[in-house]
Predict the structure.
Amino acid sequence: MERRLQQLFFALSLLALALILAAAWQANTPSWKTYQRSFLQLEAQEEPNAITKAAVLATPPEIHQVLLPGLQRVDRCTTCHLGVEDPTMKNAPEPFRYHENLGPHVPAKFGCTICHGGQGLATDKDSAHGKVDFWPNPLLTKDYIRASCGRCHKEGDVPGVPELTAGHRLFETQGCRGCHKLNGVGGSIGPDLTGEGANRRAPEWLEAHFLAPNAVSAGSAMPNFHFTKDQARDLTYYMLSLTNEEMGSYFSSLRLIPSPEYGRQLFVEKNCIACHSIGGVGAKTAPDLLGVTKRHSIEWLDEQLVNPELVYPGSAMPEYDLETNARKALVAYMASATAEDAQAILSRRARAMTTEEIAIEAGKQNFSRFGCVGCHGTELQGGVANPNAQGGEVPSLLHVSDDYTKDEVIAIIRNGRVPPLDNTAGPTPPLYMPSWKNVLSDEDINRIADYLWSKQQKAKDAW
Amino acid sequence: MNRREFFKISWGTVGLAALVSGVGVSLAAVVRFLMPSVFYEPPQSFKIGEPGDFPFGPPTFLVAEKIFVFRDREKGFAVASAVCTHLGCTVAHFSSDQRFHCPCHGSVFAADGSVQHGPAPRALDWFEVTMARDGKLLVNKDKVVPPNYRLMV
Amino acid sequence: MNLIREIWQSIVRRDPLSTDKGKSELVFLNVWLHIHPAKVKKENMKFRHTFYLGFITFFLFLILLTTGIALMVYYRPYPPQAYQDMKDLQFAVFMGTFLRNMHRWAAHGMVICVFLHMCRVFYTGSYKKPRQFNWVIGVLLLLLTLSLSFTGYLLPWDQLAYWAITVGTNIGSYAPLIGGQLRELLLGGHSVGEGALIRFYVLHVAVLPAAMILLTIVHFWRVRKDGGLSRPVWKLKGKKEELVTIGAPAVAVPMQASAASKDKTYGLMEVVSGKPIFETVTPEEEEDTVFSYPYAFVREAVVLMATVTTVMTMSLFLNAPLEELANPAKTPNPAKAPWYFLGLQELVSHSAFLGGVVAPALMVLALLAIPYLDRNPSRRPRDRKLILWLFTIFVVANLALIVIGTFFRGPGWAMVPPWVHVVGGAE
């Protein structure tokens, strides 16, 4: 018995020793060391003589990492991707290949995961590429990688990524904000999209969801907007770029130089010519813009675009809620605008607008910008399915004046309204009118009502 | 020695050896565990930019890296440590006398880094600077070079 | 050579181990070993009498102490660095994964072993006079073990940790009047956040281990003072009846009446108190004893190595879980407390007050009161049928609730058998 116990003790001690050695061996042979050895072999091939060759091969293995405290990130990708900054590795096999077209985006300042996704802290392939459980950001595939540009380049066009601009535009014009909040503005019927790009949501899922919401998310309240494949891709790009990491301030030095082309686009889109003229061409309601950049400083113009009333008390100019870069782009356009160009823009419009029409136009902008069009349609036609309420779909707004006074409509917009059930035993309808009084000013709501009234079709005409 | 005694001794030896080596390996593992594999500090080897980023004449002081980058039209690049060899204060380079002065205990180093006054026990370090494959200057603080080391670009 | 011998003898001041005196002195001249008696009863060393559960628990605690101190070197107790440090342990620190695994599995093992140890003590009736108070200390050690495990659960700062602690602390907040304040005090806020992490850290690495060490010392001391390990007395054949009712003489027989006193010299204290300080050993018992060295020590060493190798083997092949970074905005479905609290969570899902307050309070109170409520002096199972049945039902019910909570609760706390795969709910 005693002999057996001693033997057992010895055997267990040996086992413990073996286990500790196994654990140490396991810890000492991570896969990244294998990659570093093969990379050294590659590098050594190019060395001219045996001594330098041996020196290269003798490089001790170590984990390479890029510290990015501003982004709360540590990227260790370069532990294996050793040739990222080495042009001679242009044709090397992965993971050693040179990263072309890095431009200013050097790994030492940006790391890798900011664009590529994946798990920066990891040092084995599957974990690093995020193809493991419990890591919400797997590597983005080639099809979607360019969406990452939008994580930092939030404003204006990103060269080479038209999808982001198009997606952003779709988001603002198709009424997404009617149901979804983004950065605090929008309805609450759908989920908040701030930081959507950081959620675990495969791009493929997003794209399929835009094409047919119910197909991937059963029972989704989101109407099918019948987007084209391209539009779904654009929106997916835009979604992927929505991260709530504060990259804007971190990369403030990296803002794009705003292009006058983007400015012109905005100038047309916001219908500036309806009030302003350039070199005498256009409406005379507001000041002529030819040479305005010489009369006022860039800062003054920027401030004017942010808050017209503050700079010009009593100004009739609506607030357009333009982003920094959009304002810069507009100013850049104004600096180069000519009367001929104004003529070209104007030729697409019949005549200048009256004050009333301006109010109506502002109302239309609000109607689109705050997402009313999402349910009520770009032409007020309604028709989005909403089972068990108001005949099963969102009502058209073309005949509102038959049933309500303008004040009643304003009250509904302000306070919201939950439609009564058609069948009290039926399911709760997914959509309802949210309250807008905390988002829109009374003035904005009045303008929306003006816009609605301008579109009313007389019941008599219809009969 | 009979069979029984042999086994008695042999079990004891094996057991003792197992225990001693087990404890030894564990201690070694602990020491290795405590040695950091990654450092949460600026790396010892880093790129400081392209040659064109640095002016001729007085050295450029890089604050975070604590180095002076010298660029000379004829001689090329050299990188000196800004850490005093006495007790680790950061020295300043005076262009008036072309020397390094330590604020802590008054050590003064000549233009080549050698000690001229004060308690500093040895000359300032000069670090290896090479050209990386992407055309940027690469400084390696782990490699100390003689004061006459220069990188010609 | 003489010097070496002198140095050696200055350290080891005992006779050679080949002598009985040497064997005794090895024990009582050594600060670490003298918690043992110089001689132990053969019966006490039988594996099936105690299963060495107390030893295993203690060895697991030693593993936890050593690995815990090592892990502290690489841990920063504030979010989200805490989570990053877990990743570092996994990816960059030499043997970091292995050490974390050891700490995790030893912690779970300790909860289980404390529980089994208490069961063993209960079934052998070893909480009875004179050991009542040591049972109370044991209950406190159980609570400390649970608290240590619970506070450690938060430290990785992942989704698992965050929501387990959120749910766990909310169970406690149902306590009337003070529940809410108690939770705030523990969390340093209204929800689990930075304040909670540092508080849990302090509790986990300083306060609770210190309390644990102190109480463990008392626990061991009393085991020794209350007559050594408590055996299942009904297995002893042909022993005196008093030995059957109590493990050791609680009130020692007067000196002159003691058979063993004839050839014993008495110290002053013993003369004053009128009874021997150390337990008396009757001649027939004397035959049943052996020297602690090597008989008890080799068994303890085997148990120690068995514990260590088991934990190491598990740690080599099973990785401690680490989920996503804690996200207060995204509750996993279902969010579960640590497994040993899932019985309570199961009760809470039926009645918050019952599961969160009544049940745990009653459990702890009942456990503490057992030695004082159970007036039956006998330790024979056939004399204590009722209480054994009650305890068994209590244990089985607890286990059943934990098993249900762990394996049978799916999204929305719905009953889902573990063999049914649930596809995640609508996104």
Q: What stands out?
A: Residues 239-264 of chain C have pLDDT under 50 and may be disordered. Chain C touches chain A through 33 residues (CB under 8 Å). Residues 77 and 264 of chain C are 59 Å apart (CA to CA). Strands of chain C lie at 39-41, 289-291.
